[in-house]
Write a structure and sequence with these properties.
The chain is about 35% helix and about 20% strand. It is α/β, with parallel strands linked by helices. α10 runs parallel beside α11, α11 runs parallel beside α12 and α15 runs parallel beside α17. The protein binds S-adenosyl-L-homocysteine (SAH), iron/sulfur cluster and FE3-S4 cluster (F3S).
Length: about 575
């Protein structure tokens, strides 16, 4: 048995090394260890006997990642810096869970930190520029902290994109770890104790960290993120994500449902299911349940359509049933994966927020084709109509890119016209930034001048803000269900979010409670709030009474905009 495990370990190591050559530990002189050296460093018979009595993760062997000699000798304090998308926030919780188990401590005070871990993003050049500035600062900090050893680790997408180049370019960096190698972090950090630098940027076909219960950095928050899948197979021509996060894989349904239950028990009132493309979720370890979904007309994928397994509609069904008082959100989504079944379950369940992310990226069919999005402007608009019909009062959000390779003024105007037609409640608008390795980098010219990109970005923002102002003003007089998140530092006003994730601000007050008495508002409360004022990104209201999610919607039917008169 032990020999089989060792053989499996060696074969896994060889497979991984063949797939990608980037699991390397560097000495000070950056000598690259060969695969045979790596195997020699692997566990021996003794290690399997010792380690098997003390597993760190239930369904994964502790080996090969951390051997007794590799363990960190002193308690070390870690300072986290997080950039990028919500996946990075959740990944930081996973990293913290892994390190906490190994005896690391956490600090939010720079001066106390022994290790700085920077969770990075590579989506646009601007995102990376910010991180380079932060690294400049940390390099200076490390130089000044002469009397004690300070280590810097770069994690996440930029680590995956630049790999060992990061260490070559940025000499102050000690550890580089890609999104699929966080289990290896304790070992990588231990290696740095005797002056080595360590890199692990292997991408995995199956890593979902399903068995790692994330430890939230902001423990008191009423909302939490849950990663339900990792990676992306879509290969939009502009996007670096498939290269930094690898192939798409879904986490088993049972582990997601368990995590939702665990969070509900901790008093969390809102979970956001996360992934690059959550609605292509597919737990292949499960037989197809109720919903065997089809792609809507006019949409296609670039990859071979996958079959079977439990789909996103099934997952929503199960997750929303855990606690009817818990709001369920999900992001990011791809327009191709919104079959009738998904729309139906969103419309039926009061606790699934009726805000759908339908990232259009462009309003021009020609640009969409160059982007390899798999739909036309017409198919997208048809989807918007279907969504609105199935889910009355639904809110929509989008991502848009301007200045993509070859985008003409006429093509850009189609984006503007799409933004005029579709009422987006939330939009993330970006000027295009060419990324190495992507198809666009290899195939197209980044030929829209920066000045034009800037100007187009500005024009998109202007439409977006103007339309949001109109949409939000239309809410004045309506009553919204608001989940209270906290208090504004300066004004002391109460901050919360409505179903469409819009910020709602109101003054603290004693209001009618469920038991007939009166009480003040606190984080985690559901409050019925009458909207009395609106800006493009914020609603202002007057609190009416405490309520529950079920009671509010029982009294007011499903839907997001309810007038209680
Ligand atoms: N998987 C998600 C999110 C991807 S990253 C989705 O498909 O919606 C978030 C957004 O960044 C993308 O939707 C896209 O609008 C934008 N983006 C991605 N690559 C970009 C690039 N090279 N330049 C500018 N914006 C980009
Ligand atoms: Fe990038 Fe497209 Fe995947 Fe989103 S769907 S992560 S934009 S490749
Ligand atoms: Fe950035 Fe990676 Fe997220 S590139 S947007 S952190 S998936």
């Amino acid at each position: 048995m032990i020999l089989i495990r060792r053989a499996q370990y060696l074969s896994r190591l060889l497979n991984k090394a063949t797939a990608s050559n980037y699991c390397r530990c560097y000495s000070d002189t950056h000598r690259k260890s060969s695969i045979t050296e790596k195997i020699k460093q692997g566990p021996g018979l003794k290690d399997f006997i010792i380690e098997s009595s003390e597993p760190v993760f239930t369904d994964r062997p502790h080996i090969p990642y951390l051997l007794e000699n590799d363990k960190i000798k002193t308690k070390r304090k870690v300072f986290f810096d997080v950039y990028g998308c919500q996946m990075n926030l959740n990944d930081t919780d996973i990293v913290w869970s892994i390190l906490k188990k190994e005896g690391f401590e956490k600090t939010t005070v720079e001066e106390e930190a022994d290790i700085f871990l920077v969770m990075t993003c590579a989506i646009r050049e601007g995102a990376e520029t910010k991180i380079w500035h932060r690294l400049d600062h940390l390099r200076g900090y490390k130089r000044r902290a002469k009397d004690r050893s300070v280590k810097i680790g770069i994690l996440g997408c930029m680590a995956e994109r630049l790999k060992e180049k990061l260490i070559e370019k940025e000499k102050a960096v000690d550890v580089v770890a890609g999104p699929d190698s966080y289990r290896d972090l304790p070992r990588l950090l231990a290696l740095t104790e005797n002056g080595q630098t360590a890199v692990n940027v292997l991408l995995s076909l199956d890593e979902t960290y399903a068995d790692v219960v994330p430890v939230r950095l902001n423990e008191g928050s009423v909302s939490a993120f849950i990663s339900i899948m990792r990676g992306c197979d879509n290969m939009c021509t502009y996007c670096i994500v498939p290269f930094t996060r690898g192939r798409e894989r879904s986490r088993p349904v049972s582990s997601i449902v368990d995590e939702v239950r665990h969070l509900a028990e901790q008093g969390v009132k809102e979970v956001t299911l996360l992934g690059q493309n959550v609605n292509s979720y597919r737990d292949v370890s499960q037989a197809t349940e109720k919903f065997d979904t089809h792609m809507a007309k006019g949409f296609k994928t670039v990859y071979k359509a996958k079959k079977g397994g439990m789909r996103f509609a099934d997952l929503l069904d199960k997750v929303s049933a855990v606690d009817p008082e818990m709001r369920i959100r999900f992001t990011a989504a791809h327009p191709k994966d919104f079959p009738e079944e998904v729309l139906q379950i969103v419309s039926e369940r009061p606790n699934i927020c009726k805000l759908l992310h339908l990232p259009a990226q462009s309003g021009s069919s020609a640009v969409l084709q160059r982007m390899r999005r798999g739909y036309t402007r017409e198919a997208y608009l048809q989807l918007v109509e279907d969504v609105k019909k199935t889910i009355p009062g639904v809110g929509l959000s989008t991502d848009m890119i301007c200045g993509f390779c070859g985008e003409t003024e006429e093509e850009f105007q189609e984006t503007l016209s799409l933004m005029e037609i579709v009422d987006y409640n939330i939009a993330f608008l970006f000027p295009y930034s060419m990324r190495e390795k992507t198809t666009a980098y290899r195939r197209y010219q980044d030929d829209v001048p920066d000045q034009i990109k800037k100007e187009r970005h500005h024009r998109m923002l202007e439409i977006y803000r103007r339309k949001c102002q109109i949409l939000n003003e239309a809410e004045i007089g309506n009553t919204h269900l608001v989940l209270v998140e906290g208090t504004a530092k300066k004004s002391g006003n109460i901050l919360g979010r409505n179903e469409l994730y819009l910020r709602v601000v109101f003054e603290q007050a004693e209001i009618l409670a469920e038991d007939g008495g009166k009480r003040r508002v606190k984080p985690g409360d559901y409050v019925a709030v009458k909207i009395v004022g609106a800006k493009s990104a914020t609603l202002y209201g007057v609190p009416l009474y405490h309520t529950s999610l079920c009671d509010f919607y029982r009294e007011n039917q499903w839907g997001v905009r309810q007038a209680v008169n």
